[in-house]
């Protein structure tokens, strides 16, 4: 596959180095982490969830459940059609069946897990709008990780700052 990603695990040493470079105070770091963890804990009351499901506003199934069902029921049906124009290489079309797409989601989930990503941990995704981004989001959902999309236009210094602020343990980005 033409998709090549660069993955880097940020350690505590990296976080400390970035904190020193940015001269972030302990209070600011604590407030940011506390605010971020509080946002993760947001959940409506069970009574609201039940009411919204009863009136049909919410489903119990997730897009990941849908993908699993479609892989089982219609494995050879077309799931993704991706058009891509590369400078100098012309354009190309990629087509994936539900079976193939689900296999990528599974492979990405296993790779993230092998990198040490566990439920509740933040995975930063700095990727262009391609089908691999959606597959990685579903992979994060599968292992219970929190997805943090990052714009592809920011430079390395800003990226380091964002990664430190969100507490990402893994950053997936494209190599070119």
UniProtKB/TrEMBL annotation:
Domain named AMP-dependent synthetase/ligase: residues: 69-173
Organism domain of life: Bacteria
Organism the protein comes from: Pseudonocardia alaniniphila
InterPro entries: AMP-dep_synth/lig_dom, ATP-dep_AMP-bd_enzyme
SUPFAM superfamilies documented for this protein: Acetyl-CoA synthetase-like
Organism ancestry: Bacteria, Bacillati, Actinomycetota, Actinomycetes, Pseudonocardiales
This protein's name: AMP-binding protein
């Amino acid at each position: 596959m033409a998709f090549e990603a660069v993955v880097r695990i940020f350690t505590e040493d990296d976080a400390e180095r970035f904190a020193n470079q940015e001269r972030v105070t302990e209070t600011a770091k604590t407030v940011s982490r506390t605010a971020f963890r509080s946002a993760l804990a947001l959940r409506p009351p069970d009574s609201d969830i039940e009411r919204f499901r009863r009136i049909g506003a919410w489903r119990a199934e997730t897009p990941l459940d849908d993908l699993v069902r479609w892989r089982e029921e219609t494995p050879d049906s077309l799931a993704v059609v991706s058009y891509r124009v590369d400078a100098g290489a012309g354009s190309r079309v990629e087509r994936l069946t539900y079976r193939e797409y689900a296999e990528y989601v599974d492979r990405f989930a296993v790779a993230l897990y092998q990198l040490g990503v566990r439920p509740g941990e933040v995975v930063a995704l700095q990727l262009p709008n391609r089908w691999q981004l959606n597959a990685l989001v579903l992979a994060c959902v599968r292992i219970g990780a929190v997805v943090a999309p990052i714009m592809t236009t920011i430079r390395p210094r800003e990226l380091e700052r964002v990664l430190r602020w969100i507490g990402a343990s893994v950053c997936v980005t494209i190599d070119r």
